[in-house]
Amino acid sequence: MRQVGDRRVFSVEDVTGRLARMFEDLRSFWVEAELQDLRPARTQMRFTLRGEHVLEASMNGIVFERLEHRPRDGAQVQAYGRIEFWRGRAQLSMRVEKLELAGEGLLRARVDALRAVLEAEGLLAPGRKVRPPLLPRRIGLVTSVDGAARDDVLTNVWARFPGADVALVSVPVQGDAAPALIARALRHLDGLDGVDVIVIARGGGSLEDLMAFNSETVCRAVAATRTPVVSAVGHERDVTLCDLVADVRVSTPTAAAAAVVPSREALDAHLADSAAAITRGLVRAGARARIDVDRRSTDLVRALRARGDLGRDRVDRLAPRLRGGLERVAARAPAAVDDRAGRLERAVAARRDAAVRRVDGAAAMLHLLSPRRTVARGYAIVRDADDASVIGSAGDVAEGRRIVIEMRDGAVPARAEAPA
User: Fold this and answer.
1) CA-CA 20 to 30 A from 368: which of 111, 161, 328, 386?
2) Domain 125-262 in CATH: superfamily?
């Protein structure tokens, strides 16, 4: 600065220097804006932060590449950094240290990240989806207590099938508490007896309003449900992750009724078509059975004839062999009979001689042990005169008892006297 008369005159460098010192003391802060004109420049990523005004900004290129959710042109972001003043051109810019998606962009990034995880686990695969039964015994309904979606589903279900049984569980369908309560309602209905299909319903809304149905809690609860789930969330343009995981996705709560119960007219037509199809099937089966029986009967007759022919051929082929065998056996029979007869005679003679030897041996032993042999040596045998029994003890002979004394050359009758 220099004094020129009564004026204080500043150079451009003085002005830019003062401005630079002002911004040096300004701390880092957050700013929300729309990101535009992304362009790499050496080691930096340059872009524009646009609101009603425009602010040029830059960020380290490596840090930008490692952002969890990298923004694209047009994304709403929140940037954290400080203002820099470039004295050479008297330009302001923002040196960004952190950059995060904001608003709907952040929500979409979170939805895309969760969708990639669910898809990698196979939870979006068509092959795991199960179609609801044609006519469920009971319909589970998870929706808001006061939303129009509840009335749309119930009105159309009962209009199509007045006897339909509906088990309603009312839950909040948006807000921080909604995901856990929706998941609990699904588990409750999945374990409820007779529930053959579950409908999740709510009307349309912004992406933020529908985030409960883009939550991991609800998506995994739908995937774990054994009962088929029909998702009727939002309108045609609204597609949530819950829609993709569910077994059936319909565009509106009204369409959910048509997905879970047939109209009476449609059911009658379906039954009539089924009856006609069964009749046609039975007729075709009967015709095929008759053709099969005729074919098998012909085959059986041919097989029996072939077996008979084979049997006769075999008999004719084996008869000469059998005749020759019988003749050979007959020729050998007399010699075999003579041989067997000689062997039998020799065996009988041997048995007879052995028997004679055994008899002679027994007779010799009997003669050796005979009492008469003892009597012949001078001994006598005393017997009772009445019954010829041998008396072996003097104490057995009473006085006057008649006895017989057997000696070597005869028997002498006697009478016992009193002992001396």
Assistant:
1) 386
2) Succinyl-CoA synthetase domains (3.40.50.261)
